[in-house]
Request: fold
Amino acid sequence: MRLGERQVLTVVKKVEFGVYLGSDEERVLLPKKQVPEEIEVGDPIEVFLYKDSSDRMIATTREPKITIGKLAVLEVVDVGRIGAFLDWGLEKDLLLPFKEQTTKVEKGDRCLVSLYIDKSGRLCATMKVYPLLRTDPPYKKDDTVQGTVYEVSREFGVFVAVDNKYSALIPRREVYGRMYPGQKIEARVAAVKADGKLDLSIRHRIPEQMDADAQKIVERMEKSGGVLPFTDKADPERIRDELGMSKAAFKRAVGRLLKQGKINIGEAKITLQSDAKRL
Reply:
C-alpha cells in the first residue's frame, strides 16, 4: 500500500461502516459513503490512500488535486499555529508546514507545491519544488510559455515552473513590477541554457517591446496632463519605479516617440504634442 498515490486494491471484507481493501496481512478502510453499490469481496477498486484526522491510513475514491511526485497549484484555506492548510480536494485539508514555505502565505493565496511524507509518516506539502522540476523542455528561444512563480529571490530573480514542470528563471535584471509565488505568468524564452533550464523574459523582442513601451509612456503622459516630469537622463531606479522598464528600454521608446513627432523633450520634462494621437 503506497501512501499518497492512486492504486487498485481488492475488497477483502465488507463491514457495516464500509469495506476493507488490501490483503489478510495489510488492509485499509474505504468508508461506507464512498463504497460503490453492489461491490463484493474480491472486486478491484481504484483508490487514493492518505491519513485521516486520527493519523489512520484511509482510502478514498475521490480524486486528489495532487499525488506523490507531482506538482499542483493549491489554494490556502486557513493558517494555523503549525502552518497553512491547502485545499487538495479531500475532506481533510493538506498541511503546508511553515518550514516548507519559501514565503509566508495567507488565506486565499495560491501556491505551487509538491507532496511528501514527513518523518511522522503523514502527507504534507512543500513549496520547495526546485528539485522536482525537469530540465528537458520542448521549447526554444523566443517561444512563448506559461508558468507559475514559485519563489522570488533578491539575488537571482524570479523562479518559475513552466507548465508547472520545467525549471526556469526570470533573471533579476528582467524583473519589472511586483511578482509573487503562485502568480501565473506568460513569458518569452530568452535562452535555453546548456543544463536544460530556461531563462525567461516578460518583455517581447525589442521591436515589439519598443511599440508597447512607447504606448505605455503616452498613456502615462495623458493621465498626467500631457507631461512626464523627467527625461531619459533620469536615474534608472526612478524610471523603473515610475514606468516598470529599464533605462535602455525607456530611451528607445522616447527616441521612437520623438522621431514620430509625438513629444518634445525639455531640460527636466517631456511633454506630449497637443495633436499627438495614441499609438
Remarks:
- DSSP finds three helices and 18 strands in the chain.
